[in-house]
Amino acid sequence: MNYNVNEQGYYGEFGGAYIPEMLYPNVEELRQNYLKVMSDDAFQKEFKELLKEYVGRPTPLYYAKRFSEKYNTKVYLKREDLCHTGAHKVNNTIGQILMAKRLKKTRIIAETGAGQHGVATATVCALMGLECIVYMGAIDIERQAPNVARMKMLGATVVPATSGSKTLKDATNEAIRDWINHPEDTHYIIGSVVGPHPYPDMVARFQSVISEEIKTQLLEKEGREHPDYVVACVGGGSNAAGAYYHYLDNPDVGIIAVEAAGKGIDTGQSAATSALGKVGIIHGSKTLLMQTNDGQITEPYSISAGLDYPGVGPMHAHLFQSGRGEFISITDKASMEAGIALSKLEGIIPAIETSHALAIFETRKFKPDDIVVVNLSGRGDKDLTTYIDYFNL
Ligand SMILES: *Cc1c(COP(=O)(O)O)cnc(C)c1O
């Protein structure tokens, strides 16, 4: 079984490029060039150098001693929370801004929900001196004032999407419309392993630096490159794709994907796509998504903004359907408690997205000598008010 993308842009039956004809030239230009550009030595040199000097890579692979003792297994944390801007997202935006420059694009657009991808995009546009337009639902703009302020400070223009539910999917529609109208000079930076081919593959490759580093670091610490399990939370699936990437074809490595159950899978307030989704098309890609019987996308819910997405990337849909990945869903409550647990045991306050991955140890048992790597996708500073309100801190 092949778990990576094939020539046609599919992972099993998932993926492809289901796009309006008017978008075809833009996506096709990217498809024809992305592998060529990424395999260029000068491109790799510049990418690696920025990851080192600007992002602060390699991020540590930290043995969490007290956390391990509590759960009677060996847990390593891949510290993506220590990346510049506080999460893994910047690995991808650095890669894509360099891609945009190679394709001679001078204008960058993005869509954002909670604003985290918008901030990561505005950051690299400031770094490169490129114009940056971020589409964001009008309601999200109200809810996420600090990230809107960050984007403005970084020089980006934040454009409200005022149609529909005024949230992420409407912002995505606006960004796509913009791209159709500016095919020559504009690159659209998508923030996860979603969207039409080649985006899922391109983003997975940029994020694959995570598992590339885990291999080297684990060899140093444990004498072997592979853990028994690699665990990551899945919104769209980019931090997970990066953490799994170099282990996809190694059957000795168990792949564990953690989704947001929200208030519970059966409550109608959930984002657990593998449990609730059916095959459909979202964001130009065939994948699993939460939808009504007539195929209307269902509004997802999670306490964590980054997991509040009605689909998963096609790689993950395939990992689920083929049985290669073990999918676990975690409620708001369990994730919030895991966030406190890690803070008190290790002095690390995780993002609530990440807390979902940490929560599995309460129910999923591992052997004492299992080596389990958890991708610590982001830090909790951005979630402080949610933690405060939830626990009356
Ligand atoms: C955005 C985000 C996620 C979810 O996005 P993926 O593409 O699934 O990785 C997870 N954790 C953090 C900290 C995030 O900022």
The CATH topology of the largest domain, please? Rossmann fold
Radius of gyration: 19 Å
Low-confidence stretches: none
Gross CATH architecture of the largest domain: 3-Layer(aba) Sandwich
The number of helical runs is 16
Family: Belongs to the TrpB family.
Pathway: Amino-acid biosynthesis; L-tryptophan biosynthesis; L-tryptophan from chorismate: step 5/5
Pfam families: PALP
GO cellular component, one term: cytoplasm
How would you portray this structure in words?
The mean pLDDT is 97. Helix content is 42%, strand content 18%. It has a six-stranded mixed β-sheet, with helices on both faces. Helix 4 crosses helix 9 and helix 10 packs across helix 11. The chain is globular and about 55 Å long. It has 393 residues and is an alpha/beta fold. It folds into two domains: 11-50 and 89-203, Rossmann fold (3-Layer(aba) Sandwich); 56-87 and 209-391, Rossmann fold (3-Layer(aba) Sandwich). A hairpin with a 2-residue loop joins strand 11 (278-282) and strand 12 (285-289). It has 16 helices and 14 strands. The structure holds pyridoxal-5'-phosphate. Residues 87, 89, 116, 192, 233-240, 306, 351, 353-354, 377-378 line the site of pyridoxal-5'-phosphate. Keywords: Amino-acid biosynthesis, Aromatic amino acid biosynthesis, Lyase, Pyridoxal phosphate, Tryptophan biosynthesis. Belongs to the TrpB family. It holds the Pfam family PALP.
